[in-house]
Amino acid sequence: VQLQASGGGLVQPGGWLRLSCAASKRAILNYAWFRQAAGTAREFVAGINWNGGTTGYSESAKHRFTISRDNTTNATYLQMHSLKPEDTAVYYCAAERGILGTVPREIQGYDYWGLGTQVTVSS
After folding, report:
1. Are 95 and 31 in contact (CB under 8 A)?
2. How many CB atoms neighbour CB 101 within 10 A?
3. 3-state DSSP helix/strand/coil percent for the chain, to nearest 5?
4. pLDDT digits over 55-87, tens only?
5. Quick one: 115 exposed, middle or buried, by C-beta within 10 A (0-12, 13-18, 19+)?
6. Strand runs (DSSP E) across the chain, as ranges?
7. For the sheet containing 75-80, what is the strand order?
8. 91-120 pLDDT, tens per residue?
């Protein structure tokens, strides 16, 4: 399975962006978004399980970001609102096969990774 993330860009503080991630083929996948700012470790942002019944968010993403999925197009989305300069990072889409009832928050919980898309929040 290959993942292709898109939708990043430059946005002003308080603005919004919608990231998309498409899987190359149909499969039972659990998705997550991670991000990595310059000089820092990659961190979990949000995740959604295979049927959309369970989602999880980091504290910084909660109430501002929304993860969703469309199983008809093998895609997941991250809607981000009220963006802050500290949200600046490369955002990675990740996926793991299988029927999971929870959302793994560790990098090791995902076998498939996209190349990432840059999000820059700056005035």
Report:
1. yes
2. 10
3. 5, 50, 45
4. 999 999 999 999 999 999 899 999 999 999 999
5. exposed
6. 3-6, 9-11, 17-23, 29-36, 43-48, 55-57, 65-70, 75-80, 89-97, 112-113, 117-121
7. 3-6, 17-23, 75-80, 65-70
8. 999 999 999 889 999 999 999 999 999 999
